[in-house]
Automatic annotation (TrEMBL):
PROSITE patterns: DNA_POLYMERASE_A. Its EC number is 2.7.7.7. It comes from Acetobacter oeni. Residues 685-891 form the DNA-directed DNA polymerase family A palm domain. Residues 326-516 form the 3'-5' exonuclease domain. This is DNA polymerase I. The keyword Transferase applies. It catalyses: DNA(n) + a 2'-deoxyribonucleoside 5'-triphosphate = DNA(n+1) + diphosphate. CDD domains: DNA_pol_A_pol_I_C, DNA_polA_I_Ecoli_like_exo, H3TH_53EXO, PIN_53EXO. Belongs to the DNA polymerase type-A family. It is an enzyme of class 2 (transferase). The gene is polA.
Length: 927
């Protein structure tokens, strides 16, 4: 208590501190490899506050989200804020965990910023005669400083009072908002008065007393640009005043009396600190080395210990080997010494530099090798010099390939890559066919951390090595000034390229041992790593397309779009650019006065598919026509036009690229072109599939897992009736309808079955009553009754869903049946929409991820099985649960039999896996 017996409330600006700590402290990661520098700084700050007992009450205030009431006042508010650094994203949840572990209330409120909550708590305490200290250096909070409210900079450990405010703003705290309204704030996109800076703003406020007084006096001021700006932008200044003024009357989510400082549960806190690897904080808190302590002993130790001023630095790490300098190799003799070193050590990292991003067309401009940390070289091959900067000697590509062939084929030397599939294809094009054994740091990381962060080399380097590599832009330039990599001088190329190999090797040394610790070794060794060569073969093979059919389709889509466009203009009552979301929004929501959309950051109405679908469901014909037009436009641009452009004119084939480490569930994704999003159930989708054809004398074979995610659900949720239905080969949707709605299987009507089908598939994605109702065109209440009846009949499914939510909340990830971790960011978010989305992810990820693991396991086995059977078949595509092959016509039936058997035996489940096959001259016929 204060001397008056009133509370002294310490309010920590959690959101503000997170960013400051992140940028103030060097990169750190916990034992799981998650970035924690902001978490570490936050914990040190909390330790100081709790150990020094500077207050009687304590709370940490967080932002609940970016969208607040201020966005309603001014949609562009904070619109220009940059994206949150990727290394910081996983730390938000950990900081909320830290708050709970320290036993400190963490408070946030949807629709309001942390600053508004702080202002309301400060006012409440001040009015009660207490004292409030705000732990923050945020200038927006300085308007709150008074005799009862002060601030403390958490990084510099300096108090902020009236003198500091006057020094910063040139006015006292009571006039801060007037100055801010005049000068604006580019960071938060607060408009203010153009041309008015802090000195001018404070001078005006000191002269006239307030913002309104300044604006009222403007017409009488001497003519100048400043006077004109004050008059012209007066309304902007008034809006700015509303934006910068903190709300002090928000109902407090937690009463001040409930914020009394209490000692944490030291056992729980110690366990959490151990999990983060924060041993220094554990010691500073008096928790010893992790051995059991009684609560009394720990608390006594905690109170007695002394904390030094200032945020402690992270514990010193072992000395690091410098990155470089590296060697440029320009002759075969020198290259031979590097090859010999790799053979003696038994491992080397390899990286290629190319003149393009398509490995099937790009030339290898150079390559780099690393044999130990700091020991790397670059071999320039196709660099182009100038008179001012001659390249000097380079080795011929064919000679380098010949020199490297024995090393790359040597089974006793491991070759390590970052994104090995790309380099494998580049080497193949250069004539180096055999490359084994290999490791891939991207996939090693992905097997342990998918969904937690990106898997690019630069990001992994920052995360695990604390090192920021030289960027591509630094050596080639940006925009119009960018030069091709082959024009980069060899010395600069060496610094960049050899470092990539060096970083790759260091990442391998850090990440490879963690596979076993994180129980991901089998997943990586049996599925992810062997899949690299399989996918490389598929990309190299490509699939043939019928250019004539694609052109016909493109013309057909164009004609239909023109007809629909005319209908749209008639419904709108005037012509407009149908492809302009802004113009469409003005017609729908300004001119027609329809409801159901919100303005975005630019002030334009949202007209995305969800908005238009909702209007179409209400019978708005214009919205329905726009959706149809957009669908055709997308198909035309994405497929009929793009496939022709991407076709290899020499072979008539297109070659997609499969991304192995992008999704959060382990699924593959394809791009350039993306062949996984062609509509399945529309006539247009069927027409596009007809343009994927087999060459003369061959056919396409499609093999598709039947309802694999439902089969996984029946297996992992232990639903006897569903298991029985699958075992008997029954219509699962009809069986569900019979079980849930009490309708006999015989003679079941199509509508009842459709409802059961919607529930079956919807449950996999955590569908809500609202979503099911929209899908079935029934009221949400009726849809809720269906869902309740479903869970009543299948309680195991509800138990499964609850277990997955709990698993995600406890660990931050869920596991697929084959042991893949799928991280679920946002599972503990205070924001309900974000949390609900994460919970749906937690339910679906083990099923979708499990299906992905199973088909990838089959893909790894199929090439060998087909070869052993002597079948002339080539695997071309993987589209979610389907595989597509090109096979000699006479061997199609036998191939289908082998493929079906291998896919159905890819996993052993309590219910049988069923694969449906089809054969045809084109993809549509086969599918």
């Amino acid at each position: 208590m204060t001397d008056t017996g009133m509370p002294h409330l310490i309010l920590v600006d959690g959101s503000g501190f997170i960013f400051r700590a992140f940028h103030a402290l060097p990169p750190m990661s916990n034992p799981d490899g998650v970035p924690v520098n902001a978490v570490f700084g936050f914990c040190n700050m909390l330790t100081r506050l709790m150990r020094e007992h500077v207050g009687t009450h304590l709370a940490v205030i967080f932002d609940a989200g970016r969208v607040t009431f201020r966005n309603e006042i001014y949609p562009q508010y904070k619109a220009h804020r940059p994206d949150v650094p990727e290394d910081l994203i996983p730390q938000f949840g950990l900081i909320r965990e830290a708050t709970a572990a320290f036993g400190v209330p963490g408070i946030e409120l949807d629709g309001f910023e942390a600053d508004d909550l702080i202002a309301s708590y400060a006012r409440s305490v001040a009015e009660a005669g207490g004292q409030c200290t705000i732990v923050s250096s945020d200038k927006d909070l300085m308007q709150l400083i008074s005799s009862h409210v002060d601030m403390m900079d958490p990084i510099r450990q300096k108090p902020i009072g009236v003198p500091e405010v006057e020094a910063k703003f040139g006015v006292g705290p009571d006039k801060v908002i007037d100055v801010q309204a005049l000068m604006g704030d580019p960071t938060d996109n607060v408009p203010g008065i153009p041309g008015v800076g802090p000195k001018t703003a404070s001078a005006l406020v000191n002269e006239f007393g307030s913002l309104e007084a300044v604006l009222a006096a403007a017409p009488e001021m001497k003519k100048s640009k400043r006077r004109d700006a004050l008059i012209e932008h007066a309304d902007d200044a008034r809006i700015s005043l509303k934006l910068v003024t903190l709300k002090t009357d928000i109902p407090l989510p937690v009463p001040v009396t409930d914020l009394a400082v209490d000692d944490p549960d030291v056992i729980l806190l110690g366990e959490w600190l151990d999990r983060m690897g924060f041993r220094s904080i554990r010691h500073r808190f008096g928790l010893g080395d992790g051995s059991p302590l009684t609560q009394a002993t720990a608390r006594s130790s905690m109170r007695a210990a002394h904390v030094a001023a200032g945020p402690p630095a992270p514990a010193a790490e072992p000395a690091k080997v410098p990155y470089g300098p590296y060697e440029t190799v320009t002759d075969l003799a020198t290259l031979a010494t590097w090859i010999e070193a790799a053979e003696q050590i038994g491992v080397c990292a390899v990286d290629t530099e190319t003149d393009g991003l398509d490995p099937l067309r790009a030339r290898m401009v150079g390559l780099s090798l690393a044999v130990a940390p700091g020991k790397a070289c670059y071999v320039p091959l196709l660099h182009e010099g100038t008179l001012e900067a001659p390249v000097g000697m380079q080795i011929e590509v064919r000679d380098v390939v010949a020199a490297l062939t024995p090393l790359f084929a040597d089974p006793s030397v491991l070759k390590v890559f970052q994104n090995a599939k790309f380099d494998l294809l580049v080497f193949r094009r250069a004539g180096l066919e055999v490359l084994t054994p290999t490791d891939d740091t991207m996939l090693i990381s992905y097997a342990q951390s998918e969904g937690l962060h990106g898997q690019g080399m630069d990001e992994l380097s920052k995360l695990h090595l604390g090192h920021v590599p030289i960027t591509y832009d630094e050596v080639t330039g940006k925009g119009r000034n960018r030069i091709p990599f082959q024009q980069v001088t060899p010395d600069r190329a060496t610094a960049y390229a050899a470092e990539d190999a060096d970083v790759t090797l260091r990442l391998w040394q850090v990440l490879r041992p963690q596979l076993r610790i994180n129980q991901a070794l089998a997943l990586y060794e049996e599925i992810d790593r062997p899949l690299i060569a399989v996918l490389a073969d598929m990309e190299q093979a490509g699939i043939r397309v019928d250019a004539t059919e694609l052109r016909r389709l493109s013309e057909n889509f164009s004609g239909r779009m023109s007809v629909i466009e005319a209908e749209i203009h008639a419904l709108a009552g005037r012509n407009f650019n149908v492809g302009s979301p802004k113009q469409l929004g003005e017609i729908l929501f300004d001119e027609m006065g329809l409801k159901g959309s919100k303005r975005g950051k630019t002030g334009a109405w949202s007209t995305d598919s969800s908005v238009l679908q909702e209007l179409a469901d209400q019978g708005i014909g214009l919205a329905e026509k726009i959706l149809a037009w957009r669908q055709l436009a997308k198909l035309k641009s994405t497929y009929t036009d793009a496939l022709i452009a991407q076709m290899d004119p020499a072979t008539g084939r297109v070659h997609t690229s499969f991304q192995m480490a992008i999704t959060t569930t382990g699924r593959l994704s394809s791009n350039d072109p993306n062949l996984q999003n062609i509509p399945v159930r529309t006539e247009e989708g069927v027409q596009i599939r007809r343009s994927f054809v087999a060459p003369e004398g061959k056919v396409l074979l499609s093999a598709d897992y039947s309802q694999i995610e439902l089969r996984l659900l029946a297996s992992v949720a232990d639903v006897p009736t569903l298991r029985e239905a699958f075992a008997l080969g029954q219509d699962i949707h009809a069986r569900t309808a019979s079980e849930v709605f009490g309708v006999p299987l015989e003679g079941m009507d199509a509508l009842t079955r459709r409802r059961a089908k919607a529930i079956n598939f919807g449950i996999i994605y955590g569908i809500s009553a609202f979503g099911l109702g929209r899908q079935l065109a029934i009221p949400p209440g009726e849809a809720r009754a269906y869902i309740d009846a479903y869970f009543a009949r299948y309680p195991g499914i509800r138990a499964y869903m609850d277990a997955r939510r709990a698993e995600a909340k406890a660990h931050g990830y869920v596991m697929t049946p084959l042991g893949r971790r799928c991280y679920v960011p946002g599972i503990t978010a205070k924001n309900a929409a974000q949390r609900n989305y994460a919970e749906r992810q937690a339910i679906n990820a083990p099923l979708q991820g499990g299906a992905a693991d199973i088909i990838k396991r089959a893909m790894v086995r199929l090439p060998r099985m087909l070869a052993e059977a002597g079948l002339p078949a080539v695997m071309l595509l993987q589209v979610h649960d389907e595989l597509l092959f090109e096979v000699e016509k006479q061997a199609a039936e036998e191939t289908a039999s082998v493929v079906k058997r291998v896919m159905e035996e890819a996993a052993s489940l309590p219910v049988p896996l069923v694969v449906e096959t089809g054969i045809g001259a084109n993809w549509a016929e086969a599918h």
